[in-house]
Write a structure and sequence with these properties.
Blueprint lengths: L5 H24 L7 H4 L18 H29 L4 H24 L10
Length: 125
């Protein structure tokens, strides 16, 4: 066996021993108390909870979050394009037209979202 792998194997062995000993210690020393109704209530500054601990969210929140992530990623593409465009001025018009096409596709997507009322908060349902 190569001796150059010995430190890696030692570190792996130490990590496994530490992990197993911590889990074993928690199992041996840990308290196993009875479940009471007070332990099942979520903590809210010492006051009785007003509603359920995990309320349902409207799908609108998820839709807006997905649209935000989508446009945020597209903004990253714009930044990368700007960096490349600065260094590739010889192919400037070709790169510029490609990004204008990408921007047009984004615009069409935004118009589609607005027509489908994906960003309309006053609509119920």
């Amino acid at each position: 066996m190569n001796l150059e792998y010995l430190p890696v194997l030692m570190q792996l062995a130490i990590a496994v021993v530490v992990a197993v000993s911590m889990l074993g210690g928690a199992i041996l020393i840990g308290q196993r108390g009875r479940r009471t109704p007070a332990k099942d209530i979520p903590y809210e500054c010492g006051k009785d909870p007003i509603g359920p601990a995990n309320p349902r969210f409207s799908v609108k929140f998820y839709m807006v979050a997905m649209l935000f992530i989508l446009f945020d990623i597209e903004t990253v593409f714009f930044f990368a394009w700007a960096v490349v465009y600065r260094h590739e001025l010889a192919n400037g018009p070709q790169i510029l037209f490609a990004m204008l096409f990408f921007l047009a596709v984004l615009g069409v997507g935004l118009v589609y979202e607005l027509r489908k009322k994906a960003l309309d908060w006053t609509r119920h349902g």
